[in-house]
Structures are given as structure tokens and as C-alpha cells.
Amino acid sequence: MDLAQIMGAANAPLKAAQKFMPFIVDTCDRYQINTPIRQLCFLAQVGHESGGLFYTEELASGKAYEGRPDLGNTVPGDGVRFKGRGLIQITGRANYGALSTALGADFIDNPTLLGGRNVNLCTPDQLKYAALSAGWYWNSRNLNAVADKIDIGHSIDDGDNLSQFKLMTRRINGGLNGIADRLDRFKKGVQFFVGMPA
């Protein structure tokens, strides 16, 4: 898999792809993201969420999440403390807590363990958890099953393929923010996955 080309050379320089590659491979193994369509969908979505494997922490302050009980943000300061981090932008005290249990690391007391602003500022542990957190979130929303309904041999731009891709995007984002970029990343990556063993 040529991760830099799938993510787009302008947004995912070779060095960034090389840094993340072993952790993404481990993540895909751990969460059974193990068929061409699952991997393509995962990389298209993660590519958008992380700005092409560059950002591991959202640029906004997180104040917009303050006092959001749906995210488990019930303690003053939770919005900023538990802003989006990781390759899929894990957000909120509740998700950080669930992830802590799943991965056996304390993201409540150490939220920045999920990411250090961008790939160039991350420690190896931050890179590892940024990738694993994306796999955990993907798995917790049952997105392998959604990806399995997409036919990699047909256009993603219409019919059931588009409906399933939109469903996947809603489960990740809560809406369809960035749908054009997510679809574009999928289309650019198809050539690397078509013909691979399922």
C-alpha cells in the first residue's frame, strides 16, 4: 500500500506517511480493517479528518464543546481538555474514557497522548495512539459492516455506494462535512485497491 499516494502527495508527504505506516498497519490488523474496501474507506475518511495524516489535534480551541453532556463534557474545562485528537478526531470526555478502557492507557489524565498538534510534533506513542484511536472509533461505529456494502468495482458517486459512504461519514462526523474531499480521497485511492484479494 502506497500510503503517501493514497493520501495525496501534497497533503501527506512521504515522511508523514512513513511515520504513520507501521501504526496504521497495526490498527488495521487489530480492528479487522483487512479487505480492500475496508482499507480504502478507512483511509479516505481518516485522510480527511487528519488533513492527509498531518493533524493529530483539531485546530479549534475546543470551547465549542464546553458543557456538552452528549460528549460527557460535564466538568468545566472539558471542552478544551477533550477537544478532537487522533487521526479521526476523538472528542469529549465520554469518548476519551471509553478509549482509555479499550486501549489500557489513561487519556483522561493525559489527553494529549492522543496527538501532539501535527505529525511533526508527535512522539512515537502519540502516533501510535492517534492511529489506534481511529481504529477504535471505526470499530465502535461498526464501520467495517458499512464499508462491506460498498462495491469497489462501481462508482462511489451514486446509488447504494454513495448512500453507504454518506452513512459512514455521518457516523464519523455527525453530518456530511467535507463529503466532497472524502469522496475525492476514495476515488484517488481506488487504483491501489482494485484487484487486490478480498
Automatic annotation (TrEMBL):
Matches recorded under Gene3D superfamilies: 1.10.530.10
Domain of life: Bacteria
GO molecular function: chitinase activity
Alphabetical list of SUPFAM superfamilies matching this protein: Lysozyme-like (SSF53955)
GO process terms (BP): cell wall macromolecule catabolic process; chitin catabolic process
Domain called Glycoside hydrolase family 19 catalytic: residue spans: 45-119
Pfam families the record matches: Glyco_hydro_19
Protein known as: Predicted chitinase
Source species of the chain: Cnuella takakiae
